[in-house]
Write a structure and sequence with these properties.
497 residues, mainly alpha, two-stranded antiparallel ribbon
Length: 497
């Protein structure tokens, strides 16, 4: 009871000193402004993303409805009914009433909605394309939207809330905590305090309980308040925000413990400031840069222009293949394709006229995709190896460990985008099957047929997936923080005048 009372007295006195310090007040204001500015930019980014997606969907619906009206007019005129809409004569053979025409001019789109915590982090999303136009002539679309690059390329370059947490949060903690004990030692007051019945551990706990609580809880509260406006009504967002705050608390405890440990062992306040600043620089800046260099050196990714040139060359070859074959050669190509794809309608007699040409184009694109597979592996392979290596090396630096967790929780990491690409590929196959059925049976595009055009519905990652992604790193970060607290406590117990 006596120890608790002493800790309480020391903590209250330290709070008075803290809020009377102009430097500390300026630090509190600075971190608040940083969080508010990053949160404002993040909210604007999330709003623009959602507005762009809504505008995109509205434009898609507008053009689809326009084609549907013209298709109905064409069908009525073909049936001999009076013309209500002026139709050009070439539209009767190739117009909105033909399934391939509708898909060619208004292709179905796979769009990625804003992440549950888009306002929290930019992450890898700056290299993404948020929408894909799928084509019924390509069964396995090439993933050109994922830009080749190092997974840590933009880790420390975006001023968002994640950047504030990873880089500025520990600097704020150091500003509030450094020199608390070493300054007392420089002024000669530490010996006087310890001459009273106050142990080093009690003194340290009281001082750093006051300053550490403010240093950790103030930014955490600001982040929670800023992001709370973004999570309202978004499925899974509250759970992700709770995990985000848990990660932030663990990171804050780690830096408080490191500051206590180093300040307890430093002989002067100047030495304490230099050492803490050096540790911050190594952990948050130098180590991520070194890891980035290691990843790119061990598994270099070729320039993106190489992939683009290969895709263009393959596309040209596929286009030439559809125009240089006679009908017998075209049918042979279709037979080979049907043999390799048993899910397609195997009746070769159905493939004639436009259906034959489309089938030949599909076969050429499938062959092109196989030829490009080796090229894509030269890009996907290094990226995959980089991520595997990073999943191990990230435990070297708490900053890298934290950054990965924050990106995954915000939905700005590679996991969510890869899931979107997989759903896009599944949607591509669905559109191809829909188009093939109507192409073979020469179905005209009525109102019911337009309504049956496949629509993409993105299935968001579940909370369980987010927990699985951050469970091991979060546990490791808390273990690391607990170890730092133990070292700090042992250093405080040995504190002497």
């Amino acid at each position: 009871m006596k120890t608790r009372r002493l800790i309480s007295i020391v903590a209250r006195n330290e709070c008075r000193l803290l809020f009377g310090d102009r430097t500390a007040l300026l630090a509190l204001l600075a971190i608040a402004l940083a969080v508010m500015y990053a949160g404002s930019e993040g909210s604007n980014r999330a709003r623009r993303w959602r507005e762009s997606l809504d505008e995109f969907s509205s434009l898609q619906s507008f053009h689809t409805a326009r084609f549907e009206r013209r298709a109905q007019a064409i069908i009525e005129q073909l049936a001999g009914k009076p013309a209500t809409v002026r139709i050009h004569k070439r539209e009767f053979g190739w117009g909105p009433h033909v399934p391939d025409f509708a898909l060619a001019w208004v292709p179905p789109k796979a769009a990625l909605p804003a992440a549950p915590l888009t306002a929290a982090a930019v992450g890898d999303s700056e290299t993404w394309f948020a929408a894909y136009g799928v084509s019924p002539s390509i069964r396995d679309p090439i993933e050109t939207a994922e830009q080749p690059g190092n997974p840590l390329q933009s880790a420390m370059g975006q001023f968002d809330i994640a950047f504030v947490v990873v880089v500025l949060f520990p600097l704020f903690i150091i500003t509030l905590i450094h020199g608390v004990l070493s300054t007392e030692r420089d002024g000669g007051t530490l010996a006087l305090i310890l001459a009273h019945p106050v142990g080093g551990a009690t003194l340290t706990m009281g001082k750093f309980l006051a300053r550490g609580s403010v240093a950790v809880l103030w930014p955490t509260t600001l982040v929670a308040a800023t992001l709370s406006f973004e999570v309202d009504g978004r499925a899974g967002a509250p759970s992700r925000l709770a995990l985000w705050l848990a990660v932030m608390l663990a990171y804050g405890i780690f830096w408080v413990a490191v500051a206590v440990w180093l300040d307890s062992r430093s002989r002067t306040a100047a030495v304490s400031a230099v050492v803490l600043g050096s540790v911050w620089l190594v952990v948050t800046i130098v180590t991520p840069a070194v890891l980035s260099g290691i990843l790119q050196t061990l598994h270099p990714v070729p320039p993106s222009a190489q992939l683009l040139n290969s895709e263009r060359a393959s596309e040209q070859q596929a286009r030439l293949a559809t125009t240089t074959l006679n009908e017998d050669e075209q049918r042979e190509v279709v037979r080979e394709m049907l043999a390799a794809n048993p899910d397609m309608d195997q009746d070769i007699s159905l493939y004639k006229d436009l259906a034959l040409l489309r089938a030949v184009a599909l076969a050429a694109n499938l062959r092109s995709a196989r030829e490009l597979e080796a090229v894509r592996k030269s890009f996907d392979g290094p990226r995959r190896y980089q991520r595997r290596l990073l999943s191990v090396l990230r435990f070297i630096s708490p900053a890298v460990l934290l950054q990965g967790m924050l990106y995954d929780l915000a939905g700005a990491g590679p996991s969510r985008y890869e899931d979107f690409l997989q759903q896009t590929r599944n949607f591509q196959h669905e559109v191809e099957q829909w188009a093939l059925d109507r192409r073979l049976h020469k179905i005209q595009m009525t109102h019911e047929q337009y309504a049956s055009i496949p629509r993409f519905h993105y299935v968001e990652e579940t909370t369980a997936t987010a927990v699985r992604l951050v469970a091991l790193p979060l546990f490791s970060l808390y273990i690391l923080s607990a170890g730092a607290v133990i070292f700090a406590y042992r250093a405080a117990r040995r504190l002497a005048p």
